[in-house]
Amino acid sequence: MKSVEAWARKKMKDPVFKKAYDALEEEFALAEALIAARTRAKLTQAQIARRMGTSQSAVARLESGRSPSLASLRKYAKATGSRIEIKLKAG
User: Fold this and answer.
1) The CATH number of the domain where 50 resides is what?
2) Residue 60 in domain
3) Which residue in 3, 9, 18, 33 has its CB near the most CB atoms, within 10 A?
4) Is residue 61 part of a domain?
């Protein structure tokens, strides 16, 4: 069985796949930042959900990086003892 890394290297050679992957850069970065905040806080998704007054599945959806609302991000930040910082950078 191939490793995930080997599969990804092969797929990234396909220009259509790479373009679609690159288009999701912001979503991947957001997901990574949310999971890092949870890890720093040493909390599970269920613990964050309780602090936010929501379900574990809602926290999992937030951590997928799929365009959460600013209100949800604020609740997540508060639950993990983090703060939100939004930056727009020149392309």
Assistant:
1) 1.10.260.40
2) yes
3) 33
4) yes
Domain with 50, as residue range(s), is 27-80
What's the domain count of the chain? 1
Ordered DSSP codes for the chain: ---HHHHHHHHHTSHHHHHHHHHTHHHHHHHHHHHHHHHHHT--HHHHHHHHTS-HHHHHHHHTTS---HHHHHHHHHHHT----------
What type of residue is 81?
G
- Mind listing the pLDDT tens digit for each residue in 53-85? 999 999 999 999 888 999 999 999 999 999 999
Cβ(76)–Cβ(48) below 8 Å: yes
- Distance, CA of 71 to CA of 14 (rounded, Å): 37
Is 14 within the bounds of a domain?
A: no
